[in-house]
Design goal:
single chain; mainly alpha
């Protein structure tokens, strides 16, 4: 089988495109991200810079003050944020607007049985896991080894949320060159991946409420966009057929207006 032309990608090194210092502080940033997928280094940098600037006012003598006298600290309380600073409130909506908003929510059609929804969303989950597995294998992107997880040998060795996190980390570390994505949409990759996360939750948690028809179709469509940006024609074709089949099944169960039989 002919090996895909991966260029610099096969080495697992960052795609620099002329910027030789991209990975200079990679070790420091990696350490910040290890805590959890939801931890972002810029939050830590912001908090550190606030703490550093606020603490400068302590134990520092002002003009005309004895060197041993402490001036009042200007440090903000830890529970303050940008909403405690200058802000505004919008005018209250009119009573008519509020009354219209607080009516009972309209019913959204739900024609798929719970077992049918589970089967559909499981198919999307499995297809996307295979899509991510093949994408990472094709371009030889590195997968960090973790002591509490088995090495990846098949798509099912990682849950979809883990594949999303891995792809997001590769993208934010500039290891994914734009040329391997559909229309070079490197800036859209993270957003497209995040839009598909609800699908995995819906597929794995059986105690969830029944989803309406539009939501089910929306989750299939979100998966279709992942396959598209990763340029996986087989996965796209499968999900497109699944979307069409599901939509037809929904349409076939809708009541016919004026038919009471």
């Amino acid at each position: 089988m002919q090996r895909a032309d991966t260029g610099e990608i096969g080495s697992g090194r960052p795609h620099t495109e002329g910027t030789a210092t991209i990975h200079k502080d990679q070790g420091r940033h990696d350490a910040r991200f290890r805590s959890s997928p939801e931890h972002y280094p810029w939050e830590e940098d912001t908090a550190t810079s606030w703490a550093g600037s606020e603490s400068l006012t302590e134990n520092f003598p002002g003009k005309g003050q004895p060197s041993g006298q402490r001036i009042q600290s200007q440090r903000r309380p830890s529970n303050r944020d940008e909403f405690d600073g200058p802000h505004q409130f919008l005018d209250m909506p009119s009573a008519d607007v509020i009354t219209a908003q607080e009516r009972n929510l309209p019913h959204l059609p739900t024609n798929l049985l719970v077992n049918e929804q589970d089967e559909i969303l499981s198919q999307v989950n499995d297809c996307l896991s295979s899509c991510a597995f093949n994408f990472i294998a094709k371009y030889q992107f590195p997968i960090p080894l973790e002591p509490d997880k088995r090495p990846v040998k098949i798509p099912a060795d990682r849950e979809w949320t883990e594949w999303v996190y891995l792809l997001k980390r590769l993208a934010t570390k500039r290891r994914v060159p734009a040329r391997v994505l559909y229309n070079g949409q490197i800036k859209q990759l993270v957003t497209v991946l995040e839009n598909s996360l609800e699908m995995r939750h819906a597929a794995k948690h059986q105690s969830r409420p029944l989803k309406d028809d539009r939501n089910v179709l929306q989750l299939i469509s979100a998966g279709l966009q992942v396959a598209k940006i990763l340029k996986d024609a087989s996965c796209m074709e499968f999900l497109d057929n699944l979307y069409v089949h599901t939509e037809r099944k929904i349409q076939s169960r809708k009541p016919v207006p004026g038919f009471n039989g």
